[in-house]
Amino acid sequence: xxxxxxxxxxxEYEPTEHVGGAWNPAEQHVAPVLGLLAHIVEVDHAARRPxxxxxxxxxxxxxxxxxxxxxxxxxxxxxxxxxxxELVEATLSQGGRAALTLRAWMLQTSDTGDIAGSALxxxxxxxxxxxxxxxAGWLGGAIRSVDFHHRDFGPGRAQSWLRPQVPxxxxxxxxxxxRLIGALDFANGVAIRVSPTEVxxxxxxxxxxxxxxxxxxxxxxxxxxxxxxxxxxLTESVISDESGPLGTSSQTLTLRRR
Length: 258
Prior knowledge:
This protein has about 260 residues and is mainly beta. The protein has one domain (about 5-110, about 125-255): Porin, CATH 2.40.160. It is about 10% helix and about 40% strand. Strands 1-2-4-5-6-3-11-14-13-12-9-8-7 form a 13-stranded antiparallel beta sheet. The N and C termini lie far apart (about 35 Å).
């Protein structure tokens, strides 16, 4: 069965062709990589605290450079230990060069069902959106490993339901949160403001906050893309599953004319 990464050792991984980047297929698309780092953090946390697990509530990724399609290693550390709140960090490196960092807040869960709710806008049912193939100048295997249903509202505004068809790793259970986090970077390609054949607009980061556990296979992104007048942009999304909204994500963009 195809998957995004081969595990080479306890800390080393190798990408498959399904990780090929949208800007350059010789570089890794960071969407699956972000999901992998979230998974590694969750697995490390579960090993350290099997009797008192905390929920992965917020992730902040900083993309320090391109990640070639080659093996890499991931290290983790606890930045702020705690009984009910922890801040943990993961770093992806290639050849001794750090290329991506994750800082994740892990929070204690409790029963707050009686006050649960959100004012974030709900996604339309998936059946109301058309099927979509990412053929608007996007390259690589990663974006073609995902099923999309899509509605375009004009430049820089779209709604998409997406479902990755490739698991992160062979023979390893992936949590719903890590699986969802591994799809969030696709938001920057679904609400096209200017064709990627004319302007490059890679993101230098991704921050997401989740206020409940995702349910089901499909992930909803209600996305807006903004370009400023001086080479900086912003992609923002409301994240949903088929039960409704469950969080938000934000990506800072650097705009480069081709």
